[in-house]
Amino acid sequence: FFFLMIRRPPRSTQSRSSAASDVYKRQYIYNMATSNKVTFKIVLASDPNLPFRTISVPEEAPFASCIKFVAEEFKVNPSTSAVITNSGVGINPQQTAGNVFLKHGSELKLIPRDRVGCQA
pTM for this structure? Predict the structure, then answer.
């Protein structure tokens, strides 16, 4: 079970721009800046020019979200795309970005599903 705690400013705080609210905003920004991140270079393998995108995401980010973001950047359908390593090993998207990085490294390929299994 996951519990999400939302911290509220003290009741004496009347506006969102108060000093107390600013403290909470700074804490959020600090936590985002200090979280561990992984960086991927993802190449669109179906394009002969081999365009790529580099993304940095928190280690705990779902890798499926990374795939969706990059697929949309390349203007391919994310639900019909697969990600493989440079050596051709398929990657299960149902894991965290940190796990993918540790198991497979940072250089990956995105393949639109119509290309999966094709001999080019």
Answer: 0.65
